[in-house]
Amino acid sequence: MISLLRQWLGKHPRLRSAARRIRSFIPGRHSVSTDFVQLSSADLESEAGRLRNSWQADELPARQRVLVDRQLAHYRAGQCVDVFDVLVGAIKKLPRLNGMGSLLEIGCSSGYYSEVFGIAGLPFTYAGCDYSPAFVELARKTYPGLQFDVQDATALAYADAQFDVVISGCCLLHIPEYEAAIAETARVARHHAIFHRTPVLPHQSTMHFRKLAYGVETVEIHFGEAEFLALLSKHGLALVDAHTLDEDVHQGVKTAVRTYVCGKIKT
Asked: β-strand 237-250 against 216-224: which pairing, if any?
């Protein structure tokens, strides 16, 4: 019954958002992200600089892995996990899927999507990188047969077009120099780039926030959708598809979380 409910909610982003808001009021439940404070333009530079390395905090990997292990247990049992299902479904729709062999996940955290892709039977040799040495250490320990590197998403040490598919895995929202990260994602991709779980504002300009993620203070960026799509085009990426994970309206402002699938524009 629970599995059927998850599958149904997975097809209705607005209802799923409402369900999550209701769950947040249940005693004993805690949100991953809390204490949002919008940053003014005057505070943005100083706060972005102060929190630039916050995602490298040593306590983050273990805290995140508790949630990830629950999700993986559901997924192994054949249950719907929306964030996994959306990305796997997007990849399966790629043209010439069986002709592509390499995949890089930028912002891989503890590397758990390598397991997701294995369960889903996706035909890729997986590599992951993350800005946090602590996350990479946990990834190497958890999945010892795979390649994991400590990398800065804004200055990757990979060759041009090295990977058939490159996934920016829900890290762009924490990178103040996000345009450089988009450019690097496009540079190292041979065929496709996917920006997974991207928070966007369909009718607003980009906004910056300070928040707590797993209890650690960090910056989160909500991208003006038109601005974000323009940056993809600027750096040689053509939008192929977009998948909506969540939609909501907060204080009159429409928000969404989407996964954007792009093709590399051949020059």
From this structure: unpaired
| Distance in angstroms (rounded) separating the CA atoms of residues 86 and 242 | 10
CA atoms within 13 A on the CB side of 170: 14
CB crowding 84-114: b at 16 or more within 10 Å, else e: bbbbbebbeebeeeeebeebbbbbbbbbbbb
- Map tokens 């323009």 to a residue: 230
For residue 56, give the DSSP letter.
Answer: G
Contact 86, 120 (CB under 8 A): no
**Nearest Cα to Cα of residue 64 among 113, 104, 15, 103:** 113
Residue 49 burial by CB count (10 A; 0-12/13-18/19+): exposed, middle or buried?
Answer: exposed
Whose CA is closest to 232, among 196, 207, 195, 199?
A: 195
Give the contacts of 129 (CB within 8 A, at least 6 positions apart): 104, 105, 106, 107, 108, 136, 148, 149, 150, 151, 153, 156
Read off the pLDDT of residues 13-47 as tens digits, 9 standing for 90 and up: 555 444 444 333 333 334 577 888 888 777 777 87
* Sign of CA pseudo-dihedral 236, 257, 47, 68: negative
Q: What is the distance between the alpha carbons of residues 91 and 221, in angstroms, rounded to a whole number?
A: 25
Phi first, then psi: what are they for 152, rounded to 5°? -95, 120
CA 44 to chain centre: 22
Which residues in 241-262 are b (16+ Cβ under 10 Å) and which e? ebbebbbbeeeeeebbbbbbbb
Q: How far apart are CA 224 and CA 156, in angstroms?
A: 25
Q: What is the pTM of this model?
A: 0.86
Beta bridge partners of 56: none
Tens digits of per-residue pLDDT, 95-138?
Answer: 988 888 999 999 999 999 999 999 999 999 999 999 999 999 99
